[in-house]
TrEMBL record:
The keyword Chloroplast does not apply. The keyword Heme does not apply. Keywords: Lyase. This is UPF0597 protein P4S50_04020. Pfam families: SDH_alpha (PF03313). Belongs to the UPF0597 family. One of its GO terms (molecular function) is L-serine ammonia-lyase activity. HAMAP family: UPF0597. It comes from Tepidibacter hydrothermalis. Residues 120-419 form the Serine dehydratase-like alpha subunit domain.
């Protein structure tokens, strides 16, 4: 189990440059262009509704433009598929200008398709002599189909009509207590790679703390703290850091962040409240790395049930819950108190909707970070929502399953309506 969990962390906690949905589109485009090997005559891209929603309004590193089309254009005109989710890292100003011109020529056609698969990206390119096709599915960097002309290089199982299943991950065989006990048994050397996430995400946060970027949520909190309107305490520090990093990232600041379970904003929310706690109450590297492991794995545990993308904000219902569990552990909370912090989170932010990646995410991440600290602190004093309270069940694992049912099954129509509303406004 130790090896399984460490391998999961290495697979799910990785650097990403830009919002993961448009970056995944850029990655699929870069691979397709490399296969094509010539000038593009026609480009048709099909994406799942959730990828379409999450990429519609977000900033892309290196350009002031927003959305999937510019991300696709940049992937086609300078992306390097070998870099994975850092596919756009090597683009210079000239490549960005070429990409913007390519987009303005209306070369990129992107359409949502009907599918219950949350992450689906299909890129079809046509040149004068060749064609190419790539498909990413299930995870943002998971290629399931690669083809040039009639030569199929990779052909995995593809289904556009899937029923979400939570049994894929080994973690669901464990209780939350057992999961944390497994992490506690690990050596520092097993997990020290996670510490890079604090440095990387703090670097992004610092961009938007001293200067207003995006909405300026983190900047505004910092100014209010300077003016003594808000106190310089744990909750406000966690809000400031997490919101500032989102301000910068959603505006397209050209820096990578450490992602968690396929999302950069999840990574910010899973890591930065812990970083705030560490600033106020310094921890050893071993304790800090284990806390990060708890946060990422509890986040993944919840995402198994809610789905990788959904109608609810994953930062609010999953990543913040992971950080709440980790902070309770750092405060030497009992296993029961850690369960209680998770229950408090499920009772609190379970209804926060996801209306795509955008500047406004910084507000949601501020709320998520604040709720994480609140839930952890009151759980330490045994203030916990009782069993059978709303969707909170008899045990924490039941509560998480209930959250998954509401998200993955109960809010399908909500997701469709959110996308229609956003699409309608963008087409006006």
């Amino acid at each position: 189990m130790k090896k399984i969990l460490v391998d999961m962390l290495k697979a799910e906690v990785k650097p990403a440059l830009g919002c993961t949905e448009p970056v995944a589109v850029a990655l699929a485009c870069a691979k397709a262009k490399e296969l094509l090997g010539e000038e593009i005559v026609e480009c048709n891209i099909f994406v799942s509704p959730n990828v379409y929603k999450n990429g519609m309004c977000v900033g892309i590193p290196g350009t002031t433009r927003l959305g999937l089309k510019i991300a696709a254009s940049m992937g086609l005109n300078g992306g390097d598929s070998e870099l994975g989710l850092r596919v756009l890292e090597k683009l210079g100003e000239e490549e960005v200008k070429i990409s913007e011109k390519f987009m303005d020529q209306n070369m990129v056609k992107i359409s949502p398709i009907e599918t219950t698969e949350k992450v689906y990206i299909e890129v079809n390119l046509k040149g004068k002599e060749n064609t190419s096709k790539t498909i990413i599915m299930t995870k943002h960097d998971n290629f399931v189909h690669i083809q040039k002309n009639d030569s199929v290089i990779l052909n995995g199982e593809i289904s556009l009509d899937v029923e979400y299943k939570h049994v894929d991950s080994p973690t669901v065989k464990l209780t939350i207590k057992e999961l944390i006990q497994e992490i506690e048994k690990m050596d520092e050397s097993d997990l020290d790679f996670l510490l890079e996430g604090i440095d990387m995400n703090m670097d992004m946060a610092n961009v938007a703390i001293e200067d207003k970027v995006g909405i300026g949520v983190g900047y505004g909190i910092k100014k209010a703290m300077d003016d003594k309107m808000l106190s310089d305490d744990l909750m406000n520090k966690a809000m400031m850091l997490t919101a500032a990093a989102s301000d910068a990232r959603m505006s397209g600041v050209n820096k990578p962040v450490m992602s968690s379970n396929g999302s950069g904003n999840h990574g910010l929310t899973a890591i930065l409240p812990i970083a705030a706690y560490n600033e106020m109450y310094p921890q050893t590297k071993e304790k800090l790395s284990k806390a990060l492991a708890i946060s990422h794995l509890v986040t993944g545990y919840i995402k198994n049930y809610t789905g990788r993308l959904s109608a609810v904000c994953g930062c609010g219902v999953a990543a913040s819950t992971g950080s709440a569990a980790a902070i309770t552990w750092l405060m030497d909370g009992t296993y029961e108190q850690i369960d209680g912090a998770i229950e408090n989170m499920i009772a609190n932010l379970s209804g926060m909707i996801c209306d795509g990646a955008k500047a406004g995410c910084a507000l949601k991440l501020a709320s998520a970070a604040s709720a994480a600290i609140q839930s952890a602190v009151i759980a330490k004093y045994n203030c916990v929502v009782p069993a059978l309270n709303g969707i909170v069940g008899n045990k924490v694992e039941e509560s998480i399953r209930n959250l998954g049912k509401v998200s993955a099954q109960g809010m399908t129509i909500t997701d469709e309506v959110i996308i229609k509303v956003m699409d309608g406004m963008n087409n006006n």
